[in-house]
Amino acid sequence: MIWDELTTLDFEGIDRKIPVLFVMSATEQHGPHLPLATDRLIGEHFAYSLQKKIPNDIIVLPTMSIGCSDHHMDFMGSLTLSHETFISHVEDIVRSVIHHGFTNIILLNSHGGNQAVGQVLVEKLGNTYPGVQIVMATWWKLGGSELGMLNEGGAMSTGHAGEFETSLMLLIAPHLVRTDKYEKGKHSKTHPWAEGDMLHPPKIALYRSIMEMTSNGVFGDPTHASKTKGLEITELVLENLQRIVLDLIKDTK
């Protein structure tokens, strides 16, 4: 089900234990070859694909399309919210959903810069609403170790606008991918303990803007991307996301 395609009367017959999914994304640069909407399109791709698989077991909210992207603002076109505004926005939406009696909320994250603030939201909302199950899932973590099997570019190829995001965009919106503009990330080295990508997160957090990390806005290697890989990533993510949905329904408080 799609939340804003329902009528107010439709809600009368909906079981309130059905999980409500809220995509948290971003509008920001993704190098010279991907559009600003990349994170939103990827998040919605997973949400709507899941809804097609289990239409009666999930409700998808309108997407939050701007996230915490201060670290991308050196690149033209990027938009950002402050952490405080982001938290308030998500809290208000979730509070509205809970007001209508729903007890399972999934925050589906598709932007690296939303991870820390998303964890804060899980803790705040979980404490405020003890009768509600609050979950945050970031899509590349949902893929698990099996996602690593798809990695052809090796270490540091799966970061921002790299192998995985580009593969998904070739599946989702190939007309928006500038394949003639592919560039490997122009990475700037830092301390070994602060290096990492989607599959191998850094051991220690060190703040660096994207411009400090890579001068062309790409962290990774899009040259290993393919539509086939995008489909394989999708299947892995959906399998694990569906499991979460069904577990929440079974384990409703």
UniProtKB/TrEMBL annotation:
The keyword Metal-binding is assigned to this record: yes
Chloroplast keyword on record: no
Recorded superkingdom: Bacteria
Keywords, alphabetical: Hydrolase, Metal-binding, Zinc
Cofactor(s) this protein requires: Zn(2+)
Molecular function GO labels: hydrolase activity, acting on carbon-nitrogen (but not peptide) bonds, in linear amides; metal ion binding
InterPro entries per record: Creatininase-like_sf, Creatininase/forma_Hydrolase
Entries under Pfam families matching the protein: Creatininase
Gene3D superfamilies: Creatininase (3.40.50.10310)
GO BP, one annotated term: riboflavin biosynthetic process
PANTHER family: 2-AMINO-5-FORMYLAMINO-6-RIBOSYLAMINOPYRIMIDIN-4(3H)-ONE 5'-MONOPHOSPHATE DEFORMYLASE, 3-DEHYDRO-SCYLLO-INOSOSE HYDROLASE
Family label: Belongs to the creatininase superfamily.
Protein name: Creatininase family protein
Species whose genome carries this gene: Ulvibacterium marinum
